[in-house]
Amino acid sequence: MQRTFQSTKIACYIGYFVQAIINNLSPILFIIYSEELGVSLSAIGALILINFLSQAVVDVLSVKIVDRIGYKKIILASHVCATIGLLMLGILPLLFPEHSFPFLAIATTISAVGSGMIEVTISPIVDSIPSDRKAADMSLLHSFYCWGQMAVVALSTIFIRFFGNRFWFLLPVLWALVPLFNLFNFMSVPFMPTLKEEEKTPVKELLSSTAFRIAMVLMLCGGASEIAMSQWSSYFAETGLGVSKVTGDLLGPCMFAILMGCGRLFFGIYGHKIDLKKMMICLAVLCTVCYGITGLSKHPLVALFGCALSGLSVSLFWPGTFSIVSGLYPKGGASMFGLLAILGDIGCSAGPFLVSLISSAAQHQNAMLSDGSALKLGFSVAMIFPATVAVSLLILMTLPKKEA
User: Fold this and answer.
1) Rounded Cα–Cα distance for residues 286 and 279 (Å)
2) Which one of 73, 237, 293, 359 is at 20 to 30 Å from 205 when CA atoms are compared?
3) 47 or 184, greater pLDDT
4) What is the DSSP letter of 399?
5) How far apart are CA 116 and CA 85, in angstroms?
6) 100-128 vs 5-37: helix axis angle to the nearest 10?
7) Does the pTM of the predicted model rise above 0.85?
8) Exposure of 199 by Cβ count < 10 A (0-12 exposed, 13-18 middle, 19+ buried)?
9) Maximum Cα–Cα distance for the chain, whole Å?
10) Are 121 and 186 in contact, with CB atoms under 8 Å apart?
């Protein structure tokens, strides 16, 4: 049976599902890493940093090579790394429990390499497929990251609830089946050819554009806004709000993912009727308020509500920025998406790491401060990221049309 570009889109949807597995499985296991393997709060923060910095390094390396060697080789390699990394995440700490952190770091790095390659190829693959509703297609594509995050949180939490912490190592092994399946899926789908070097908008021209530089800030702060909350919400719900792991995961990170996915799906359906920039400004203001609610509220359910609602508020930051820039530079190619992904992954590293840094510093100053209370301080400081998104979008809207 001959496969079409619709098959390619479906494989890309699953590809973002794979990236969601890589980025969101470990946060569900943070408590287990802490209690069963003795990994400290600062070391957990380092794992988050390793994950997203590794992705950023891959983004940097991919800027020049993706268009040269083609999408297919990169996307196949990404799924190989994702499969191996997830298998190692489950197996290595079990074999070396007394030295678990270095092996967690190695497994995280390998799977992150796969995630980074997915990030720099999936969006340009879908963008290259002919369509008259590219912004909506991009938002719909990115919604599958949210459905993946929701599935990872819900199914992993239910697994731990029924089988207990002892069998946590089976989770990465079982989730590794998804990238393994999609590896064979991508082998048989068609790809559009990459742009020739002389057809592409030069990187130098992109970097000299005021609008593109603002988009880089949007990616950095948008990534930080999204990941700072999603990476710490499970740990925060259990240690800071006094709720059970099942309740905390389902009402915190799971609802975060559902609302983020709904925001992207809504724009994917009705995006042609909505002013993207104005919508993103409204969501950035909402996100700032959500971080404030989560960090400052003394009532557990209100704080959990702020955590969940922030999922809706960040829904368009990443795909919206891709769509804005793709409209400005339709011949930017994979290198353009790679540059944006670099800043996005730096933000994804900086956001949660800043939260852990502020939290650890607060505990150092006050040893009696609980992990949950310390994380509240971290969330309060992280309000700076969505606030910067709002300001950057306002500046972008004031630029002359020839620059924006």
Assistant:
1) 11
2) 73
3) 184
4) S
5) 13
6) 160
7) no
8) exposed
9) 65
10) no
